[in-house]
Amino acid sequence: MTIARARWSTILLATLSTALVAQGTPPAGGTGGRGGGAQPATPAMTSSPLPTGRVTYRTLTEANLEMERIEAAYPTKVKRFALPHKTSLGSTVWALEITHDVKTPSGKPVFVMTGLHHSREWPTVELPLEFIHDLLKNDGTDPRITAALEKVRFIAVPIVNPDGFDLSRTLINEQKRKNCRVQDGKEPTYAECANPLNAGAGVDLNRNYGAFWGGIGANAAPNGQSYRGAAPFSEPEIQNMRDLFASHQVVVALSNHTPDAKVLRAPSTTDEPTPFDVAQYDSVAQLLGKDLKWDAGPWPKVYYNASGTMEEQAYYTAGTFAFTFENTPGQRGFHPAYSFVVDQYFGTGAYPGSSSRAGYMRLLEAAADPALHSVLEIKAPAGATLTLSKKIVLESAPVLLSDRDSTRGPIVKQPMELTSTTVVPKGNGPFLWHVNPSSRPSQHGQELIAEQWTVSCKLKGKPISVAVTVARGAKAKVDLGKCQ
Ligand SMILES: [Zn+2]
Fold it and tell me: Rounded to the nearest whole angstrom, what is the distance from the C-alpha of residue 205 to the centroid of ligand 1?
């Protein structure tokens, strides 16, 4: 197996070195002709060991059509849905929800994986989509995958930033990092975003999340490569992610990036406290570091400062154990030749023993582990709708006023409501709902903010509610037997 893969990589590299994979090659199965016929004869590459056998990067259209086809092919296991906010160019951002019996509400813990916050990081579209195919093809035969899809609801958003991806993938602005915002508060046109004069415009979407927004490790100036945006969640792409996290019990999350060989967790700047849950949170990070053979830890220790990131948002909103992978390192680019995507997925060839797939499987299984989240054991009638809710106030950093000095303005307070719903299935015994702990990590110290979940139940009559306290790793009994 290893030999076959290594040999495949060599052949593909030879092909790609002359064909320039970055230049918009046709999809697998398309014509192999690259014009002129002047190329030396090379073996025609028609497949790779990836679950789909692909040998080229997907385009935006291909990836979106593929998500539609995956849902159609696996109707009992996959539900595709649009995130609520269209991008500023009007693109829909798609998510795939994957689990056994996907259309039936359940109390399964949720694992969220994202790709492509940053436009030019094309491998981060490939790796999640290949993992989805891998899960679906091997469900029912691979016992680890079968067990994981029985226990966990996996939600993938392979392209958080479709506008930016399209601009980069079509090579109109290949090295684009940010989204298509050209001027704050104004909707851009495609022509404005594609205009070379606006090549440096846009908001860095992984600096636009609300938790610690405006701190160090982001630009206040719009032409900065890490521009944070006009306000926390100013960008529709990050409003989508905020709402996804606020409406599900996401216990584990991963943001895929390239190309720096790191596994990252919160805190993401030196201004933030050590997380309350550091022992458990870091133990998962270190195991992921072994799966990838990369340094693992908090951003400022193993990488650099970055404020307003996805893992800060997820951890400080709900205690979600959230991580970043910096995939396909060492190739002097954000989207190296496609063979490196293949090698990164399996941990073969250029990346021996460094497998994104292994990390993804570990995260899926971490989501299934009740020692890492909380469980509500609910007594309620079958068919009742249950709602879990909490009002919180998320905080930005004391906002840096410019990139030139360290003068800071006040903290931006962001009231939010977290609301998840499900329906009690028919069956014996209590209903188990896998949730985040009721108390939330403080943004000011290594401590928890004492909070409770409100659990409401409604069948046909008036809803009834109870307040519940539940710690990480613990189970709490909730009696809603009077619900009718
Ligand atoms: Zn990135």
Answer: 9
